[in-house]
Design brief:
single chain; 197 residues; alpha+beta; six-stranded antiparallel sheet; elongated
């Protein structure tokens, strides 16, 4: 009795490899976008923490502070974003194994020890960054996060404010129907979305 050996032909194997290649070409770009969107959650969470720290400081001292150490804002290490509380930046040091925050630091840089780097200046797409004081209106605060989450030349910019805002420029300017978007006080706004560019 002769046994018949069965197997795949070279053409059948090449067809399977081609199908896998096509599926990968479709899935990988979508996966990269979802991965970048998940990295944006760092900015949202840390901006909410910054907002909460500033509001708690305001309740105690009747003013906002431009110093990260004074309000107690310190995101965990391995941060991809730089965080800004005031317009002129004095960074905490995140180049070594230990992070040190000086008393005059008003910005927290991306964790350079882990290899993340971001532009050294805040980008004030949402308007005036930092603390504004006025005799006719209560104090207000705008904080910002700037990061490069997908290694291209475009930066991802988020902001948070104690005042409600109406989007007028940048990426958050219009909602889905084309009208100006309303941004509530204490809600992070994606001023420039690095994922969609």
């Amino acid at each position: 009795m002769k046994k018949l050996m069965k197997g795949f032909t070279l053409i059948e194997l090449m067809i399977v490899v081609a199908i896998i290649g096509i599926l990968a070409a479709i899935a990988i770009p979508n996966f990269i976008k979802f991965q970048a969107r998940s990295k944006q959650s760092e900015a949202k969470a840390n901006l909410k923490a910054m907002f909460t720290a500033e509001k708690a400081f305001f309740q105690e001292k009747d003013r906002f502070s431009g110093f990260v150490g004074e309000v107690g804002f310190a995101p965990e290490r391995n941060n991809r974003y730089s965080y800004f509380i005031a317009g002129t930046q004095t960074y905490d040091d995140r180049n070594g194994t230990q992070a040190s925050t000086g008393t005059t630091a008003n910005a927290i840089e991306a964790d350079a020890f882990k290899g993340y780097t971001v532009s050294a200046t805040a980008l004030t797409c949402p308007g005036t960054l930092g603390i504004t004081t006025s005799t006719t209106a209560p104090n207000s605060f705008v904080g910002e996060a700037v990061g490069n989450i997908d290694s291209d030349s475009t930066l991802d910019i988020w902001s948070i404010s104690t005042d409600g805002r109406v989007g007028t420029s940048c990426d958050y300017g219009l909602n889905v129907s084309g009208a100006q978007a309303n941004i509530a006080a204490g809600e992070p706004a994606n001023d420039q979305n690095d994922v969609n560019r």
